[in-house]
From TrEMBL:
Family in the record: Belongs to the glycosyltransferase 64 family.
Pathway involvement of the protein, from the record: Sphingolipid metabolism; Lipid metabolism
Gene3D superfamilies in the record: Glycosyl hydrolase domain, family 43, Spore Coat Polysaccharide Biosynthesis Protein SpsA, Chain A
Domain spans labelled Glycosyl transferase: 515-755
Glucosamine inositolphosphorylceramide transferase 1 N-terminal domain location: 80-383
Matches recorded under InterPro entries: Exostosin, GINT1_N, Glyco_hydro_beta-prop_sf, GT64_dom, Nucleotide-diphossugar_trans
Name assigned to this protein: Glucosamine inositolphosphorylceramide transferase 1
Membrane topology: Multi-pass membrane protein
PANTHER family linked: ACETYLGLUCOSAMINYLTRANSFERASE (PTHR48261), GLYCOSYLTRANSFERASE FAMILY PROTEIN (PTHR48261:SF6)
GO cellular component, one term: membrane
Signal peptide: none
Known cofactor(s): Mn(2+)
Domain of life: Eukaryota
């Protein structure tokens, strides 16, 4: 009987059992005759469990170091989601001419309501443009329309629900410092972007990019700025990022048509012309006037402008990633037959903070216009991540996890604990009893698989035989594979849990601001200072770092430091801790972050502290709490405050304060005796500041923020005054007693930990 013979000759085929049949006795053998059905654990099983535990622990440790445990405040519950197109936002620039534009924070514009002293870019984000009906993932392609003292901002907003672009509009009446979102100006069934708004013959028109529809449309404002009507289809071509301008008695249309045969995407530019906006459009004789590499700025990047009688065009450099940066071109010749332009420096100062800056990786659109006052104002979009960043992180993380699995198996093979990798006889011979067709086709397929798997098995055996673990080479190989596995774990954790890698600033009431960092040091601690400046200068909201130099030859800030922000060395005549709180008219921000040069913490912790201070600007907001109580008063460490579940003092070695009010109080006549004691003990300036603030206010004066982690290197330096802890605490206890005699006791009010809803003061 043929079927019977087949049945008896095909072990493992009973009931169609395949590769995953638990009867396969590779390393783990099930005893079905045992009542408890126990599993005899093998070295293979133990090896994989141990690997899972070891690399899982390493991954958790790396996550603790690199991923903030604190939840970020939701900018908007519906919008501002991660998007592969980016996280674009919009900033405002001002200057005397379009080639000398500076970000709004350099203008010193302030907003008391949000404690934005000064207001900083970005001024308009996805949170600004989101509402319940139109949540936004990002805002980009900004265009201005100036109407008297009012500025109207038209922009692309990507709807988080429909995942297509709509045209939004916002209004500002304070020269771009604050914006009020008015709503959606244009919403079609297809994707819209690049809302070029202009005036022609007394009417306001818009030509948004809608290449998905296959044509180029002109809309007219019926009730500006929210009601628009289709006026005419100007071109039946999918024109991308186009603008229309009246120049030399003709109306010119600049745009890109990537559907043209041979067109290079993001590298093609065409010109059309007509006698009027509603006339017959004709192609330029040189079309395409550009068909170049995508990095050379052929694709339009904003509104053209006229300066000193010359016409300028803004183009996109898409090299490396889409919208990498913008370029400026001066139009030398524009006729029906010829077009010539040359590149000129635009003068935009690029941020060196990378992903921590709102426009650190790319900016691809600029609209600069002149106000009636003669000042130029511009809006520019920017992004901190490249195009496709979310997908790239997912693929990289998946690859890292795959590599980790391969490395674990490889180490197991080398150690000899992984032997039965490919169960050939079972897996390749398994199948249904009555599958007659497969009886004839399987040998042709399985024979090849059998040869491949056999070679892999022989390779594993040969590899295990050649590598001697008791030799130096074998040990080095295992160490190398372990290091690769650790790197794979770190890459995977960062890709899946680390977000986009940016330590972003936090907004308050939708606005951003900046602060000045101030530290006090001298020659013996220069190595600390270099590391300090390199790290903290890359934090998003840091505007300047001021170094109070108390003793020794001062360094050169231009050559001695790796900094992305200006570093100013303030040389003092007297070596005094009081210099820390000296009034400094060159400081351009109200917020000052006093931070000792021997403390290292993450930029995210610093940014969280800045947000808390902006919400409580009359308080001392810091990271090191203390509880001062007892009779007589005694100085104790943070552990004591934790056991008592509260604090009433914040050390100014890591604290935000209002430089105007706090510094003024510290150098008042009433504090002179206290400052003399600080000079006498060469200590306690932070305690004096707490006494001064607490005894001149009836409200709360301190606020604690818990850092994810902080490293204090003072114990490693012989120059630190707190290196001898016991002596340091005795001096500070003496200061408490002296200050109590002068100013009275600190308020007995104790502020509890974990009183904030966001959990930042745990």
């Amino acid at each position: 009987d043929m079927g019977k013979g087949l049945k008896n000759s095909m072990p493992g085929s009973l009931g169609g059992v395949g590769c995953c049949d638990m009867s396969l006795k590779c390393r783990c053998r099930w005893r079905w005759d045992s009542p408890a059905r126990t599993c005899v654990l093998s070295l293979t099983f133990i090896f994989f469990i141990a690997s899972l535990l070891i690399f899982g622990a390493l991954g958790m440790f790396f996550a603790w170091l690199s991923v903030s445990p604190f939840e970020k405040p939701a900018m908007n519950t519906l919008g501002c989601r991660e998007d592969d197109e980016g996280s674009w936002s919009i900033g405002v620039y001002r200057g005397s001419n379009p080639f000398a534009l500076h970000p709004i924070e350099d203008e010193g514009i302030q907003n008391d309501g949000s404690a934005a002293w000064p207001v900083a870019n970005p001024v308009f984000t996805c949170a600004s443009a989101s509402d319940s009906s139109h949540p936004s993932n990002f805002v980009a392609d900004p265009f201005l329309y100036i109407q008297g003292d009012a500025l109207y901002l038209f922009f692309e907003t990507k709807n988080a629900i429909t995942m297509q672009g709509d045209i939004g509009v916002a209004k500002s009446v304070d020269q771009g410092a604050t914006w009020h979102h008015l709503g959606i100006a244009l919403d079609e069934e297809w994707h819209l972007s690049y809302p070029y708004v202009f005036e022609y013959d007394g009417q306001i028109y818009m030509t948004p990019e809608g290449s998905e529809k296959g044509d180029f449309r002109l809309y007219r404002a019926l009730d500006f700025p929210l009601q628009w009507r289709l006026e005419k289809v100007l071109l039946k071509k999918p024109i991308v990022d186009a603008f229309v301008i009246h120049h030399n008695e003709h109306v010119w249309l600049f745009g890109s048509d990537f559907s043209r045969f041979g067109a290079k995407k993001n590298g093609e530019l065409e010109i059309w012309y007509a006698d009027s906006l509603f006339g017959t459009w004709k192609q330029h004789k040189g079309n395409p006037v550009h068909n170049l590499d995508k990095s050379l700025g052929a694709r339009n990047g904003g509104r053209p402008f006229v300066f000193d009688g010359q016409l300028y065009r803004i183009g996109q450099d898409c090299g490396g990633t889409y919208g990498h940066r913008i370029r400026a071109f001066r139009v030398e010749v524009l006729t029906k037959e010829k077009y010539k332009e040359i590149e000129v420096p635009l003068g935009i100062i690029e941020s060196k903070k990378g992903r921590n800056a709102w426009n650190g990786l790319r900016y691809h659109h600029l609209d600069a216009q002149q106000l009636s006052s003669g000042v130029w104002i511009a809006v520019m979009d920017g992004d901190r991540v490249p195009s496709g960043d979310r997908t790239r992180r997912f693929l990289l993380g998946s690859l890292a996890m795959f590599c980790l699995g391969v490395l674990i198996i490889l180490v197991g093979v080398i150690l000899g604990v992984v032997r039965c990798v490919f169960p050939l006889s079972r897996c390749l011979g398994a199948g249904k009893r009555n599958d007659t067709f497969s009886l004839w086709t399987r040998p042709h397929f399985t024979s090849r698989l059998h040869r491949v798997f056999s070679r892999l098995n022989r390779t594993c055996d040969a590899l295990r035989g050649k590598i001697r673990l008791n030799t130096c080479g074998g040990s080095l190989l295992l160490c190398f594979l372990f290091v690769l596995a650790v790197v794979s774990v770190c890459v995977g954790v960062q890709c899946f849990f680390g977000g986009n890698g940016a330590e972003e600033a936090y907004s308050v009431q939708g606005q951003y601001s900046q602060f000045t960092m101030l530290t006090m040091t001298y020659e013996a601690r220069l190595w600390n200072l270099k590391m300090y400046i390199k790290h903290y200068s890359r934090c998003a909201s840091v505007r300047e770092i001021v170094v109070v130099w108390n003793k020794g030859q001062p360094p050169n800030p231009e050559t001695d430091f790796d900094s992305t922000v200006p570093v100013r060395i303030r040389v003092e005549e007297k070596n005094s801790l009081n210099n820390r709180f000296k009034s400094d008219p060159l400081i351009k921000t109200r917020a000052v972050f006093e931070l000792d040069d021997d403390i290292m913490m993450t930029c995210d912790d610093v940014e969280r502290g800045f947000r808390v201070w902006r919400e409580n600007r009359d308080r001392l907001v810091g990271f090191y709490p203390r509880l001062i109580d007892g009779s007589p008063l005694k100085y104790r460490d943070e552990k004591y405050a934790r056991t008592r579940k509260g604090y009433n003092m914040i050390l100014t070695g890591a604290a935000f304060m209002d430089s105007e009010s706090a510094f003024q109080k510290y150098w008042s006549d009433e504090a002179k005796e206290g400052r003399n004691l600080v000079d006498k003990f060469f200590n306690c300036e932070d305690i004096l500041m707490n006494f001064l603030l607490a005894n001149q206010s009836f409200t709360r004066t301190v606020e604690y923020v818990h850092p994810a982690w902080a490293v204090d290197t003072s114990k490693l330096s012989s120059a630190a005054i707190s290196r001898d802890t016991q002596l340091h605490y005795r001096i500070r206890t003496n200061c408490l007693l002296k200050f109590s005699e002068i100013f009275g006791n600190l308020p007995l009010q104790k502020w509890e930990f974990d009183s904030r809803k966001d959990g930042w003061d745990l």
